[in-house]
């Protein structure tokens, strides 16, 4: 079997594929791999752009390792392969919700947590910051639990699968809530002049800058007492299906065929940006549909360096002869205490650059990466970058603690692969 990720830029051919349906199945797979001298990795739904999940040994597909293990009024324990979209629906039916989440729900719970998936939030962090317990199978075949206050807990929440195979996760939940979503057009120059006010004044700020223009689509989400005022079915289809996917995909395809048209295409897109508002269930507001395939690089920089990073990125795009159809996305999060969280120890801002999958642009990513690393940026573990362990050790205060723990738990690198060799050494 050949495994290919969502974007189609990573492929691997494992020697064997298994679909564990229980923790015992995972234990058996880990022990079998160790006994036969093969490496083992669990892969989620393939939404990472890096080779973080690839293996030439035993690949575990957790499609059968799904569902709720236990409920409590403020937490839920789910098996590792549970897709986020299913978890959202299960929570909603019980009147519960996650405090924050990213905008894609196709990932498995374990895959999203292990790679540091995040949304945007003034006060609430990424998925790893909502974890209250973990269960994982270690390289010796034993099953370990990790709870707050233990080093394994802080290391394994964003563990890259390097410490063990995650089998279940306990997440903090809260009563379901509504979000007031507001979309509006703003000039990038105005945003740069008011970043502090925008960030402080909104629980969730997310904005998209259209290269070759000064236009941004700004999305703010804030809690609302109700009643709900969801978008109509027609407006939902118009925004999420037609404009943001069908029309945008056609624009990307046209730009790929005639790159010289891209600035004009983006100008037309900017002119079409309009204001809208709705009030709906949080998980429906946080998430979005993404049909157009792309490649992505994302860096987290210290929050106070966001304006500089954006200005330099804008200036770089204007200076170079690139044609970029995809918007640059900006989000923010508070500090995290997960050792390898991109927000560890500092309020962070994320700058995500995308390119249309059929037209990769390595020079664009390379140029932006130079800016981000100069500003002590940390690359998203599941998105394209070229950083190695020597660089990452400088920007993660607990990097050496993580690798030392890995040395103790997996000295034979049973859970290793080429990507982990690059980023962990």
Can you give a write-up of this model?
With 425 residues, this protein is α+β, with helices and mostly antiparallel strands. It is built from 14 helices and 20 strands. A hairpin with a 5-residue loop joins strand 9 and strand 10 (143-146). Helix 10 runs antiparallel to helix 11 (362-374).
Task: List the SSEs and their pairings.
Layout: E1 3-4, E2 11-12, E3 16-18, H1 23-36, E4 40-42, E5 58-60, E6 68-71, E7 75-79, H2 84-93, E8 96-97, H3 109-114, E9 131-137, E10 143-146, H4 151-156, E11 165-172, E12 174-175, E13 178-187, H5 188-193, H6 195-200, E14 204-209, E15 215-224, H7 233-257, H8 262-272, E16 276-281, H9 282-286, E17 294-302, H10 306-319, E18 328-333, E19 348-356, H11 362-374, E20 378-379, H12 389-395, H13 399-409, H14 418-424
Parallel strand pairs: 3-5, 4-5
Antiparallel strand pairs: 1-2, 6-7, 7-11, 8-12, 9-10, 9-11, 13-15, 13-16, 14-15, 14-18, 17-19, 17-20, 18-19
- Give a count of the beta strands, DSSP E runs of length 2 or more: 20
Number of helices: 14
Query: Shape from CA axes?
Result: globular
Which stretches of 5+ consecutive residues score pLDDT under 50?
Answer: none
Largest sheet: 8 strands, antiparallel
Q: What is the subunit organization of this protein? A: single chain
Q: Helical residue percent?
A: 25-40%
Major sheet: order of its strands? Answer: 16-13-15-14-18-19-17-20
The secondary-structure class comes to: alpha+beta
Mean pLDDT over the full residue set: 96
Based on CA atoms alone, the radius of gyration comes out at: 21 Å
Q: What proportion strand?
A: 15-25%
**Cα separation of the termini:** 28 Å
């Amino acid at each position: 079997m050949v495994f290919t990720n969502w974007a189609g830029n990573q492929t691997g051919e494992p020697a064997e594929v298994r679909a564990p349906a229980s923790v015992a199945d995972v234990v058996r797979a880990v022990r079998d791999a160790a006994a036969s001298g093969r490496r083992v990795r669990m892969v989620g739904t393939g939404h990472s752009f890096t080779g973080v999940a690839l293996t030439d040994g035993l690949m575990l597909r957790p499609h059968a390792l799904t569902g709720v293990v236990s409920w409590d009024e403020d937490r839920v324990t789910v098996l590792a392969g549970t897709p986020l979209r299913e978890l959202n629906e299960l929570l909603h039916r019980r009147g519960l919700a996650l405090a924050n989440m990213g905008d894609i729900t196709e990932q498995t719970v374990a895959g999203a947590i292990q790679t540091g998936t995040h949304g945007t939030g003034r006060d609430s962090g990424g998925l790893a910051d909502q974890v209250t317990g973990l269960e994982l199978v270690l390289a010796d075949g034993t099953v370990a639990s990790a709870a707050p206050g233990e080093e394994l807990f802080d290391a394994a929440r964003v563990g890259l699968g390097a410490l063990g195979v995650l089998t279940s996760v306990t997440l903090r939940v809260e009563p379901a809530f509504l979000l007031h979503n507001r979309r509006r057009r703003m000039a990038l120059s105005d945003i740069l002049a008011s970043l502090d006010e925008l960030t402080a004044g909104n629980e969730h700020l997310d904005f998209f800058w259209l290269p070759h223009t000064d236009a941004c689509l700004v999305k703010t989400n804030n809690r609302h007492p109700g009643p709900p005022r969801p978008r109509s079915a027609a407006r939902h289809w118009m925004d999420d299906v037609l404009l943001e996917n069908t029309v945008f995909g056609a624009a990307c395809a046209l730009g790929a065929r005639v790159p010289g048209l891209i600035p004009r295409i983006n100008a037309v897109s900017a002119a079409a940006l309009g204001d809208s508002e709705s009030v709906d269930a949080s998980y429906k507001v946080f998430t979005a549909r993404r049909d157009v395939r792309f490649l992505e690089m994302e860096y987290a920089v210290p929050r106070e360096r966001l304006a500089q990073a954006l200005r330099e990125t804008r200036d770089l795009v204007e200076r170079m002869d690139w044609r970029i159809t995809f918007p640059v996305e900006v989000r923010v999060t508070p500090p995290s205490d997960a050792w390898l969280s991109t927000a560890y120890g500092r309020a962070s801002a994320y700058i995500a650059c995308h390119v249309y999958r059929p037209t990769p642009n390595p020079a664009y990513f390379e140029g932006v990466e130079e800016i981000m690393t100069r500003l002590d940026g940390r690359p998203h573990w599941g998105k394209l970058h070229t950083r190695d362990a020597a660089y990452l050790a400088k920007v993660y205060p607990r990097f050496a603690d993580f690798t030392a723990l890995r040395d103790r738990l997996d000295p034979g690198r049973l859970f290793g692969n080429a990507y982990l060799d690059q980023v962990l050494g």
